[in-house]
Each structure stands twice: as C-alpha cells, then as structure tokens.
Amino acid sequence: MNGKKNAVKFGLYxxxxxxxxxxxxxxxxLFVNSFKSQKExxxxxxSLPAAWNFDYLKNAAAQIxxxxxxxxxxxxxxxxxxxxxxxxxxxxxxxxxxxxxxSNVLFLVFTAAMLIPxxxxxxxxxxxxxxxxxxxxxxxxLMYGGFGxxxxxxxxxxxxxSVPLSLEEAAVIDGANIFQLFFHIVFPLxxxxxxxxxxxxxxxxxxxxxxxxxxxxxxxSKTLTLSLYYAKSLSGQYGNPxxxxxxxxxxxxxxxxxxxxxxxxxxxxxxxxxxxKG
Length: 278
Description:
Layout: H1 2-33, H2 38-43, H3 55-63, H4 66-97, H5 101-113, H6 118-131, H7 137-160, H8 165-173, H9 178-186, H10 191-207, H11 210-215, H12 224-230, H13 242-277
Helix pairs in contact: 3-13, 4-5, 4-7, 4-10, 5-7, 7-10, 7-13, 8-9, 10-13
C-alpha cells in the first residue's frame, strides 16, 4: 500500500511540476531575452545571455516614458481600487443586513452582471462616455469602478453574512453612528477578503489594455500598457527591435508580478475563506 501511495504521490508531483514549468516558461523567456542584443535573441532565444546588459532596460524605460506612464497607472489603479472597495463593501453590507425582497433582487442583479461579457456592452458604453465628455482618466476610473463592482459585491456578501449581528447591536447601544459602526466595527472584520479584492482588482487594472485604449487612446495620460503599444520605436519598418520590446514588456510586468509573489498567500486565504463563509 505504501508503495502504491508513493507512486501516486510521485505522479501527482510530476504532473504539477510540468504544469509549473509550462506556466513559468513565458516569464523565463521574457526575462532572459530582456538583457540580450537583437543578434543574440535571434541566434539563441532560449539560452541565458552571454553578458547581462542593463542598458537595454534603460533604453526601453526611456522609450515608454516610464516615470510618467507608471505614475498615471498607479494613480488610476489606486483610485479605481479604492472606489471599488468602498462602494462594494458598503453595498454588500447593506444588502446582508436588509432582509427585504429588494435586497435579494439587487444581489441577483449584481450576480447576473458578472455573466455579461464586456464585448457586448463595449460599443454603447464607449459611445456614452464620448457623449458625456468622459473619454479621459476620470472616465476610465468610473468604468473600472463599474466593471469591478459586481464581482466584489458578490465576494463581500458571503463574508458579511458571517459577521455576528450582536457585535453591531452592541456598538449601536454604545452610541456608534452608522459610519462608526461600519468603518470601526464591521469593516476591520473582513480584512482577508478586502486584501483579496485589492490584489485581484489591482492586477486586473494594472495589466488591462482594452479599456485604456478605448477610453484614453493616444492622450498624454497614458498607462504603461498604452505607452508600450504607442511607442513608435518598438515597431520597425523592416523588423521588430526585440532588444527594446522584451525589456519594455518586462518593465511593465515586474511591479505587479512582485506584488503577486509577496501577497499570493492573502489571495489564496481570502478566496478559501470566502468559499467557506459563502
């Protein structure tokens, strides 16, 4: 029996190792080619660079206007995620504490909204934003807030159902108003799901290309993904300058990759706890 269990365990680990290698291969490919010349990339794209040349990263950072683009991306991400967290948490809490049919219907509406593909509403929404004069950074933040709301409300809803009502009743008896009740008593109790919501939405917004392309376009306040797309030096008439493309993509990927590596435990814990509480 022990031999059979060990064989099954070995097979499982072998499969998981293959999946990990398959998943990490694009990152390896991107990383090693970000320090090579065009000639070296074409000759040996899979091998480590003969010399680790960081000048390619510096040149790529200059081409995509790194500081300005990163500042715009950070601003959009922070404001949009803050908007999503505040609105979704308050909405989910009110729906859980309100035992009316309207709150149940509203929760079903938020749940159903997750099933609507963005492509089906893309054109009318972009047309509406243009008519309202919101094809700018502010309009982009509003769009992110709207699209991120349904999933976040759904995640918070399961957590708030597990918060004991007696805690809120005790706070009200002690004289807490509704703002103190939520922000000082209730909201701190849902830190795991809040961490998960912040990380997942930040990753989505940071890496997103389509919405910034549709709303901002080639304006001055471009995100990193847009700067990468519109950089003329990254596309050549007679070929692609891979010695600039690879490091430019790496620069855009590194920040959110580092955040994910350090905070992946929070993501897993939040999702697992949400599944149990929901």
